[in-house]
Amino acid sequence: MRLITLCLLLTLILEQAHAQSQNIRLEDFIYNEKIKTVLLAPALEDPNNPTRLLTPAVKPLNGTAPLVLEFDDLSGQFAGYRAKIIHCNADWTKSNLNDIEFTFEFNEYPINDYQQSFSTKVPYFHYRLELPKLKLSGNYVIYVYADRDRKPVLSRRFMLYETRVSVDAKARFSQGIQQQYSDQQIDFSVNYKGYPLNAPQTDLKVVLRKNFRFDETRSNFKPTNVRPFDQILEYTFFDLENTFPGGNEFRYFDSRSLTGRGYGVNEIERSDDFTRLMLFPDKSRADNAYIQVDDFNGQYIVDQRESGNGSIEADYTPVIFTLRTTQDPDATFYVNGAFNLWQLNERNKMTYNIATNAYEVEIMIKQGVINYNYAMIKNGAKQSDEAFIEGNYGATENDYDILVYHRPQAGRADLLIGYRTVEWNRRR
Fold first, then answer.
1. N or C: which terminus of the chain has fewer CB atoms within 10 Å of its end residue's CB?
2. CA-to-CA distance for 255 and 261, rounded, in angstroms?
3. Is residue 57 within 8 Å of 157, Cβ to Cβ?
């Protein structure tokens, strides 16, 4: 028994050293340019239902439907992959838990479910993994690495929650005088009846998130009112710390069928290697009146209309985005959206074309309905500005979720003990 314990400890040390040596990023990230369309969402009865991709990677700890990880390898050759899971704290730093404290089995999962693309110009292998059941709630990162060299190819965040406390929330226009037509406010309370808190004023860590984006969060909240007899914490602020810019409804294009031009597609160019799509040129919406548009709040679906099996029959198409706006040598423009994991990088960075007097970029995207907008970074600023091109409107339909974390007494990690979503201006 002692020998087995020593072996387990040695394995844990080696695995942690491996993760550190590979510089695993505890965020949504793609390390290999041949890896595309990384998806993580709860499973549905119909695995080909494209709407499965609109549900965030958040589920009850003991929920029956597993989370499913999917991704494509465009290298054209089969490769073996394995996955590992990391438990994180509320701030997405690695927790001090060992693997055996949050997993039921050895923390290494071979990805044996794969298919080759069918009838596509761009060949790829599609991989799929049902995530295992875990012991604890909280934040997690799953990362995938190649068998041949153990180098990571992707990482994705997900969350498991327990309903140990209940959350009541309401979205509304901002109370700020100058922000009432542009921003949205989330007021909420936490009922911790039956859940032990030593210091209710400071024990909980609460995070607000807009449209399930990790780059659109608010945190470090302290309750504005503590009702100890009712065991309720109220978070109703007057300094706008719970306020988000409304943004605008997302632009989108429809490439589910390549036999003709879908919504947003201006031209189609066909070759033996691929089918290129040129979208209609876009322009600024910052100074226009708000226009109601149904969208996916920045998310997207993968689908192929003729077959209904987008996982392996949807093709990859080069898509040309064009933004007509005045050239600014101090600014960098990007096409932004969940299709690129909300990352601003060389893949979606635009360049100015003097001949067309517009910013342009070509991005390889899998067929489907894709939401996007435009983000700008000025003078190397750390925070991007979407309002510069898209504008901010208080009436914009958005989804918000509230995450409540707690580290139990003598605990070594933050657990996710409450979760709630709230919709603003949702059209039925």
1. C
2. 8
3. yes
Separation of alpha carbons 333 and 344, rounded Å: 9
Token output for 357: 């007097």
User: Per-residue DSSP letters for 330-395?
Assistant: TEEEEEESGGGTT--STTTB-EEETTTTEEEEEEEEESEEEEEEEEEEETT-SS-BSHHHH---TT
Q: What pTM does this model have? A: 0.91
Average pLDDT across the chain, whole number: 92
Closest CA to 187 of 167, 205, 214: 167
More confident residue, 306 or 17: 306
User: In CATH terms, is domain 18-161 a member of 2.60.120?
Assistant: no
| Residues 56/401, Cβ–Cβ less than 8 Å | yes
Residue 220 CA, chain-centre distance (Å), reads 21
CATH code, 166-246+396-424: 2.60.40
Do 321 and 363 contact (CB within 8 A), yes or no? Answer: yes
Contact criterion met (CB below 8 Å) for 338 and 371: yes
Return the structure tokens found at 153: 């190819």
Instruction: For residue 289, give the DSSP letter.
Output: P
Helix intervals (H) in 51-118: 99-102
**Tens of pLDDT along 224-275?**
999 999 999 999 888 888 999 999 999 999 999 999 999 999 999 999 999 9
DSSP string, 102-171: HBSS-S-EE--EEEE--S-SS--EEEEEEPPPBSS-EEEEEEEEETTT--EEEEEEEEEE--SSEEEEEE
Contact residues for 397 (Cβ-Cβ < 8 A; gap 6+): 249, 295, 297, 423, 424, 425, 426, 427
User: What is the spatial distance between Cα 149 and Cα 378, in angstroms, rounded to a whole number?
Assistant: 39
Residue ranges covered by each domain of the chain: 18-161, 166-246+396-424, 251-390
Residue 381 neighbours by CB distance under 10 Å: 11
User: How many Cα atoms sit within 13 Å of 183 on the Cβ side?
Assistant: 15
Q: What is the mean pLDDT of the segment spanning 24-38?
A: 96
